[in-house]
Amino acid sequence: MTNIAFIGLGNMGGPMAANLAKAGHSVTGFDLSPASCDQARSDGVSVAASTVDAVRDAEIIVTMLPAGKHVLSVWADILPSVKEGTLLIDCSTIDVESARKAHVMAREQDRSLSSLDAPVSGGVGGAKGATLTFMAGGARQAFDRAEPILSKMGKKVVHCGEAGAGQAAKICNNMILGISMIGVAEAFVLGEKLGLSHQALFDVASTSSGQCWSLTTYCPVPGPVPASPANNGYKPGFAAALMLKDLKLAQEAALASGAPTPLGAEAAQLYALFNNAGHEGDDFSGIINFIRGQKG
Ligand code: NAD
């Protein structure tokens, strides 16, 4: 049994903390939202009165927060109070620069702290079912220590490299996802204009070179993949607001590193338009309806 502190008990962090408690760890959590704290309590998590109280006795601290500014502010608050040798793991999706800054803040404490950036893929369903994929950045020793804990919340844990490499892998993957969903959506819209049935295009593309996750798991038209959000009124799934967040992070990183990402930039613009049209809460595959509505 490990003493674990878990800060940020929202849609993702709540079920992740619950899975650690279910696995027999002693989990102490904190969230600014009283409703999230109540839910965590009923899931077997002890709730502390503050972030600092939550981390005092922890051997491992997990944060699952909205964005880089929240992570840096929470880490700045807790670092002076954590025990020597504690491992800090940030599972939020944040910009690479903030992730690297968080590692530096931990190292500067000079108390043998170790740290990992370990964002996840798999959404709320993966958090509840403990089937997330973790992509981790940081020293090998920190990864080896974190791996048995992360594997209680997910089915795959990948060490991507040094500090920030987990966030880098996350935004590169999600840039592929955003671009590929738009590609699949455009193909269905073109197919419709050409008199091709959705099923015929699916049967061909899913077994041909157009095959990809956006088509075969998350098909943006109802019918071919019964479990895809298109069959459920485009309820998320993975909300368009989160897709836009990740595409913006990818663009920030592309700008900072000088990487040319013309399709990533276009995807970010299209998802911004889709979000601004009031679809932030829709599944990101709903962009097909937005594309269909554009003039050719
Ligand atoms: P969420 O908004 O449901 O949860 C974030 C929680 O952090 C909230 O409950 C909020 O009250 C809490 N919080 C904010 N500031 C705090 C502070 N200072 N102290 C304590 N608690 C604080 O968001 P989520 O969907 O759980 O996402 C969390 C992270 O995971 C984000 O970075 C998101 O991009 C990433 N992510 C989400 C999904 C998804 O499908 N929801 C998938 C992959 C990754």
Mind sketching the topology for me?
Layout: E1 3-7, H1 13-22, E2 26-30, H2 34-42, E3 46-47, H3 51-55, E4 60-63, H4 68-78, E5 87-90, H5 96-108, E6 114-117, E7 120-121, H6 123-129, E8 132-137, H7 140-150, E9 154-161, H8 165-193, H9 198-205, H10 213-216, H11 240-257, H12 262-279, H13 287-292
- Uncertain segments: none
Query: Helix segment count?
Result: 13
Q: List bound small molecules.
A: nicotinamide-adenine-dinucleotide
Strand content: 5-15%
Number of strands: 9
Distance between the termini: 60 Å
Query: What integer value in Å does the Rg equal?
Result: 20 Å
Number of separate domains: 2
Assign the CATH superfamily of the largest domain: NAD(P)-binding Rossmann-like Domain
Question: Largest sheet, described in full?
Answer: 6 strands, parallel
N to C succession of SSEs: EHEHEHEHEHEEHEHEHHHHHH
Question: How is the CATH topology of the largest domain named?
Answer: Rossmann fold
Assign an overall shape. elongated
CATH architecture of the largest domain: 3-Layer(aba) Sandwich
Please identify the oligomeric state: single chain
Structural class: alpha/beta
Q: What percent of the residues sit in helical stretches (DSSP H or I)?
A: 40-55%
